[in-house]
Fold this sequence. Notes:
Pfam families: DUF6284
Order of helices and strands: HHH
Protein name: DUF6284 family protein
Distance between the termini: 52 Å
Organism: Streptomyces ficellus
Number of helices: 3
Strand content: under 5%
Radius of gyration: 20 Å
Amino acid sequence: MSHIVTVQEAVTAFADWKEPTDAELDAIELEMPAILADVDLVDAEIAALERVPGALDARRIRRARRKALATRVVLANRAGRGEAA
C-alpha cells in the first residue's frame, strides 16, 4: 500500500510572506499589453474551435495574431532602447 503525503516545500513555497517584489510587479505591468493580446488570440482560437470556422473566424484570428505580434515588437523595441525595467 502506498501512502499519499504532501511535500512540505511545495506547500510552503507560496506562503503569504513570499510576495512578488516591486521589480517583478513592474515587469508584469510592462508586459501586460502583450499578455492581454495573447489572451485575445487564445479567445479567438477557442471560438473557432467551438464551431465550424468560417471566414470571420479566420479574420478574427489573423487580427488577434497581428495585435499580439505588434505588442511583442513594441516590447522588444523598448528593451532594445533600454526602457524596459
